[in-house]
Design brief:
By secondary structure, the protein is an alpha+beta fold. The chain folds into 3 domains: 117 residues, no CATH class; 83 residues; 146 residues, L,D-transpeptidase catalytic domain-like, CATH 2.40.440.10. The protein has a 5-stranded mixed beta sheet, covered by helices on one side. Strand 2 and strand 3 form a beta hairpin. The longest helix is centred in the N-terminal third of the chain and has 60 residues.
């Protein structure tokens, strides 16, 4: 090789090398610039999609989807967050592209997840309400107390109405929980009612066995218990017209059960009559115990049918006595029925006839010693020296010589005791006591709860 050739190549390299180097550098810079631009665009796309996903997850949470519900998506979101941006700039567009694509996939997965959970919440709400309705029906068929069945039905109706207005998963899950609570309580009521029915049936078998085929005796015992239970429940209902009677809910439950079996007492089948009698005795006893337990500190109860008065103090009878009242359905001779109270007292007291001389109802001024008034028209518990003590009692109200114009006659010594014992405002209950259903005895009330008569007499 000649010296001149070598010089030419050296010159050539000196000229070409910088050009190549410049081209390489320029290409690298161009690649970096391109990578930055593409990376920014891909990152923006990812951030937009990610914002949408985050927003939808937040909305889902507000709609009642729990962290456990959303875990299949949120777990993958956290994994997405764990991915690191590449240091090599040209690799970043692909990285953010994959992130954006994964985010879109998670949005689709969230849609599907919410759809499944929402449909499940709707199905759960419908099932809980349906099951609750079925068990309530079973309890009703088992003769559960009306008040208990009605209370459950009201709760079920409220939940059913809420289901009709539900829009979100939270709404439907709330309805499902309501239905579940009703179902649980309905199941408890059904079980308790079935246990009660079994106890009644066992008692009925004993009654039938002891009756030795005497259907009449079984029916008589059943009717006696039925009348007693109805009268006690009616007295409580009268007392409840004034101030709320303690334990009245329990009395209503027992009374409802009593009436559900009442029709069996008249059955010509000994087993059926015994079942009605067993139930009457069981629930009449429960009613009586609840009435005594719930009595106010002091109260007087007067039965028109029995023509009898009972004075109660702290749940104990401290005085009882036969009485004579007025009669019902006859002008100017009726004793009012109602939840009355002691309004005032007078000793001695002169009763003046509101009718003029010549009227068949006129009577001369009459002095009684001890008068405890319970209506504003002058009905009172008082002594009556013109009526022998042995004339008081059942049927005496129909004797024209002794019946009152509305007052309650009682022996003089007991009238004085009542005058001294009874405070103003003490309840005085005068009620039919005829053994009829509570609704019938309530329908005969003729005063308000302040003792203001709503009828003449």
């Amino acid at each position: 090789m000649s010296l001149s050739g070598t010089r030419h190549r050296t010159v050539f390299l000196r000229i070409v090398a910088p050009i190549v180097l410049a081209a390489v550098v320029a290409g690298g810079i161009g690649l970096v610039l391109w990578g930055n631009a593409s990376s920014a665009q891909a990152s923006t796309t990812y951030q937009q999609r990610r914002h949408t996903l985050d927003t939808r997850l937040k909305v889902a949470s507000q709609q009642g989807y729990t962290s456990q519900d959303l875990a299949p998506v949120t777990t993958q979101v956290r994994a997405l967050d764990g991915a690191r941006e590449p240091w090599w700039i040209p690799s970043r567009p692909g990285f953010y592209g994959r992130q954006a694509s994964e985010t879109s996939r998670l949005q689709a997965e969230l849609d599907a997840l919410q759809g499944r959970l929402f449909a499940q919440s709707q199905a759960d709400a419908a099932k809980q309400l349906g099951d609750a309705r079925s068990v309530i029906g079973q309890a009703q068929q088992s003769n559960a107390a009306d008040s208990d069945v009605q209370a459950l039905q009201r709760r079920l109706d409220t939940a059913t109405k809420a289901r009709g207005a539900a829009h979100t998963l939270k709404d439907y899950r709330t309805v499902a929980l309501q239905g579940q609570a009703v179902l649980k309580d309905a199941g408890t009521l059904l079980a308790q009612t079935q246990q009660e029915n079994q106890a009644v049936q066992q008692a009925a078998q004993q009654i039938a066995a002891q009756a030795n085929g005497n259907l009449g005796a079984v029916q008589q015992a059943g009717n006696q218990a039925l009348a007693g239970g109805r009268n006690d429940a009616s007295a409580a209902a009268y007392l409840n017209k004034g101030d709320p009677f303690k334990g009245y809910d329990a009395i209503q439950r027992a009374y409802s059960r009593l009436e559900k079996f009442a029709g069996l007492i008249a059955s010509g089948d000994l087993g059926q009559a015994a079942q009605g009698t067993a139930a009457a005795q069981r629930y009449a006893s429960q009613i009586h115990d609840a009435v005594i337990k719930g009595m106010p500190g002091q109260a007087v109860v007067i039965s028109f049918q029995d023509q009898h008065l009972w004075a109660y103090q702290n749940g104990q009878v401290v005085l009882d006595s036969p009485v004579t009242t007025g009669i019902r359905g006859v002008t100017d001779f009726g004793t009012d029925f109602g939840p009355m109270k002691v309004l005032w007292k007078d000793h001695p007291h002169t009763m003046k006839s509101p009718w003029p001389k010549g009227s068949p109802y006129y009577y001369p001024d009459t002095v009684v010693q001890w008068a405890t008034f319970f209506t504003k028209t002058g009905e009172s518990i008082h002594d009556a020296n013109w009526e022998p003590d042995n004339a008081l009692g059942p049927g005496s109200q129909f004797n024209p010589s002794f019946r009152s114009h509305g007052c309650v006659h009682i022996p003089a010594g007991k009238a004085q005791w009542m005058y001294d014992w009874a405070p103003l405002g003490m309840p005085v209950i005068v009620y039919p006591g005829d053994g009829s259903a509570v609704a019938n005895q309530l329908s005969q009330i003729t005063t308000d709860d302040q003792g203001n008569p709503q009828s003449a007499g």
